[in-house]
Amino acid sequence: MGSRFLRLSVSSWINGYLLFDCGKYLSGFAPIIFLSLVAVCAARPLYPLPSKLAQGAKQPLQTSRPYNIAHRGSNGEIPEETGPAYMVQSHRRGADFIEGDILATKDGVLVCAHDLILDDTTDVKEHKKFADRRRTYMVQGSNMTGYFIADFTLEELKTLRTKQRLNFRDPQYNGGGAFSLNELALLAFWGKYPIITFEEYISIALDAPRVVGIYPEMKNPVFNNEHVKWSGGRRYEDVFMETLKKYGYKGSYLSKDWLKQPVFIQSFAPTSLVYVSNLTDIPLLFLIDDVTVVTEDTNQHDYFSNNLQTYSEITSDAYLNYIKNYVVGIGPWKDTVVPVANEYLQAPTDLVARAHARNLQVHPYTYRNENKYLHFDFHQDPYQEYDYWINKIGVDGLFTDFTGSLHRYQEASSPLPNAKASSVLHKIAALVSSYKNG
């Protein structure tokens, strides 16, 4: 194998690289290097914070076809929301954006995790010292029991290791395993995959060899604000936005600043989106669940009243007219756009048309390769599903567990223009954005 530059996440080497021969260790120096790496990785976060070192011109974000959004990283292959899952996407799976869910720890640190509880995606149940942390809380109108992230400090969470949520997916990285040096450099020395912080997630995108956007979700803001407290009376949403600002994320959609560091902020909680719209010009996206589900930000103490707001109500024309003042798009569950009965597609709703009429993008979720998720109409072929949603329904982005499949489909059906043409398209996009925002 050829030599590779490996990024080191140590304070003294944070802006440097180590030239490492993957096939043959240098005599004499190899033991020292190896032991140093092990010692460092045991004491420091594995994932490097963004370097001040000039990174040179990167391949820009493509804006000429629907966005390929890595849902929770590469969770079709690797445990969700982990460093390796995001690094695979940013380095070699063709994702335009890496998507993550952001929750708060007991000590107020923002971390990447989809569930409020750790039960289904970590080995928390194997840690006897945490046996007394099992709790029951009211979450969106129902009792939920488990090991809540909000009851653990970051230091405690870092002792846990992740696993695949779905037992029919590749289990080889559950609580262990490692990629080769060819694939993920230092991860081969780490082995087991811990929960990562919001900042570590950001650093993976910023350190990618091309421009990779982030797509963080403000997750369960009501619960976070009830169970976690920050100094100065700050809210979860404030800390979320402070983190993005710290790393330079800013700018309206397709602006020069945005194209440099692309980002969408998403949430199922409309009041949180309205709140942060007063703090930033970053484009926001409103997530929509099944039409029978109660909205995520409904005050938990009012759930048993008779005035509950469901997603059915907020997909109305009146609500879309309201929310378009704050967001650039919606992210509906697929079946909200195209209903399904007995695993067959039914007639599409007019939600996409109504959203587009209000200049709102539509990024549905979630696209998966497994047969159990592919409706009969697609004959167990994910390419047919992508073709249907992109060319018939006309969506603007897709949240997928298998970005490699979507990337290959798009490269075959609508390959990106060459670098020179891409540069021209970006200049045109910037001019259009400037005109629209002027």
From TrEMBL:
GO biological process, one term: lipid metabolic process
Family annotation (InterPro entries): GP_PDE_dom, PLC-like_Pdiesterase_TIM-brl
Domain of life: Eukaryota
A molecular function GO annotation: glycerophosphodiester phosphodiesterase activity
Enzyme Commission number(s): 3.1.4.46
Span of domain GP-PDE: 66-410
UniProt keyword annotations, A-Z: Glycerol metabolism, Glycoprotein, Hydrolase, Signal
Known catalytic reactions: a sn-glycero-3-phosphodiester + H2O = an alcohol + sn-glycerol 3-phosphate + H(+)
SUPFAM superfamilies assigned: PLC-like phosphodiesterases (SSF51695)
EC main group: hydrolase
UniProt GO cellular component terms: vacuole
Protein family per UniProt: Belongs to the glycerophosphoryl diester phosphodiesterase family.
Protein name: glycerophosphodiester phosphodiesterase
Organism: Linum tenue
